[in-house]
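Hey,

The postdoc asked me to send both predictions to you directly instead of through the lab channel. I've kept everything plain text so nothing gets mangled by the mail client. Protein one:
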Amino acid sequence: MMKYLAVLLVLLLSACTMVSPPYKNSMDNLQHLKRSAMQEVAVGNIEDSKKVNSISLRGSSLVSPNNKSFGDYLELALESELTAAKLYSGVSSIVINGKLIENDIDVSGFSVGEGNMTVEFVVSNKDSVIFTKSISVTHEFDSSFIGNIAIPNGQLSYPVLVQKLCGALFTDPDFMKATQR
């Protein structure tokens, strides 16, 4: 019995915390934004919760490099994309806010991993809500039965999932209509 307890303790202690890679802008998102008639916007608060800030990769934890908050990670990603396209202004009356509803990377598959993210976006202009929509994206990536392959692939796939979410927002016709010049 003690032998099994010792093995269990070693396995639990071997679990580590991994940090998601920093966000990198998507060329597709940048090109779309530059071609759009969107006016400058600000990014407000993307709310999150303990549930969506807890991503497990086969016993390892994936955390955000931004205050351990994936809401902060998404805020900075949106700001970065919009800044690169010269469409960000911290003083704009049009503000993107949201709530992170789903945020997960699943590396349990034998050959395919999957990331899922859902955000309820609310865009306001001064005191009026001009856009509200729940946007969901899925990202599939190569995985493996072998944890030393699956776990890093899941970690590296997180920024791609966020790029897809930003792209889904920026290409949403209702969002673009609400933020037009």
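Protein two:
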Amino acid sequence: MQNKALILILAMAGFLMMAACDRSVVYNHYKHVDNEGWERNDTMHFYVPPIKQAGTYHQQLMLRTNNQLPFLGISVIVEQDIYPVGRKLRKRINCKLVEQNGHVIGSGISCYQYTFDVDSVQLNEGDSLHMYVMHYMKQENMQGISDVGILISQ
């Protein structure tokens, strides 16, 4: 009986993994934030190489935090230049990190990882991106953010 339950659990886990992997990742990169904190004028730059296939691409912002973050969430600006057409896009992302009751939303134990949707964008074959990420908080130096990343999938 235990073997049947184990087989059922493994089959369900395999199905969930296949369903979660239905997008192909074309870019996945993190930039480390200085140990002194993320200064307002410290812009993270991400250079996405030319796209091999035209289509709709899903963009996500990724954050890693530690226990030094003094806020329940942060606001982040994601700007991007699409080349060679020269199109510019800008979006403000409000990143909720902790519930009002103190429950951390991200995954992890003492360091937490988060993923936030940015946008879906139509790209042509050969288009490349230069993406800029900066925090949009009144506080000049944001303690508690350890890494900032971009994930693009089709």
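Summary for protein two, as requested: Residues 1-20 have pLDDT under 50 and may be disordered.

Thanks,
C.
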